Amino acid sequence: MKKIYSPLLVLGLLIFTLTFFFVKYSITNTYEENLEESMLLYTDWLVKNQTKQGDFNYELDVSTGRVIEGYNIVRQAGGLYSLCQVYQYEGGSKYEDSIEKGIDFFHGLYEDVENDVPTIAINHEGVKKSNSVALYLLALVEYMEGSDQAKEEYMQEAKSLANYLLFTQTDEGSFIYLLDTGRESDYNNGESFYALIRIYRLSNDERYLIGAQKAAEYIIDRYSNEDFNYSIYAWAMEGFAYLYQIDNSKEYWDFMKMYTQEYFRISGIPVSIYLDTSTGYPPKANLGVYLEGLAHVAWIAKERDYDFYIEIKEFMSESLKYLMSLQIDGPKSDRKTEFDLISGGICYDYECDTQRIDLTHHNLSAIYLYLKYVD
Hints:
By secondary structure, this protein is mainly alpha-helical. The protein contains 12 helices and 8 strands. The strands form 3 sheets. A 3-stranded antiparallel β-sheet has the order 2-1-8. It has a 3-stranded antiparallel β-sheet with strand order 3-4-5. Strands 6-7 form a two-stranded antiparallel ribbon.
């Protein structure tokens, strides 16, 4: 005998089904929306903390809202870089005034360098750090990628900055961090490498590709034979990801995967244990730095090793959830403040005594790159 279902039962089943799918997919959408909101709050923090001169407040006391004395010109360039990333994400124009103000600030630090081609260094208080040039160049690249007008206006000076990076590159492929001393820096080796491949992609000037390839060989040869180096990891992975897009070299991918597996073995496992069990020491906000590198590895792993891509994506997703809990007045945080300058920035660590520009801009970039390359 054919069963007859009551209209109320059918309606109930329909409501249950629709509710199930709404909840299921709204959770995914809510996570992405939370990430985007968090990223834009970081961006607003940078804009609020930009000074009249065009640079940014470096560090803040969370309990008082006051600026703490301290400065780092490289991190100033990094703040402008992440601001330009969101400019691209938003489709241009929204943060243009702040970006132009930041560019004007750096124009005041330009110093011409005697060379066969136009070459510009950044001189801050008598010191020329190569990675301040690299990060500022990356800011210009992001800005020019988001605006044809900016590309027309700033390409020549961007190339003059890139020429300085080539000027500081050694025969082996590394980069001199401070010309006066001949000193190298692991950070700078990664940052300058990444900046060169990014300006090559925009300018098609073969000199920058040659410099980036030379740096890549040096990084593989040196860092494959040393203990894992936290300082170079993120920037090197970013550089290799872009270089891989040009020639799909298995050598580049093999290094990226090997070095990322080392990161997971040494640092990623303790982070995962804390995120899963809340045991151990809570990760600091500098976790966002490594997520920037991981996002680029995931970008290439989608094609080369899908299982590895999924592993990276899951680690990044859980890490970003945790990092959102360190953001003051963030969409997934219980941390609140009455101070406008503090609102939207990230705590230095779980204790949340201070905020610092580099941690805010790195976590902004981590979200931007996750949304761009991973999700």
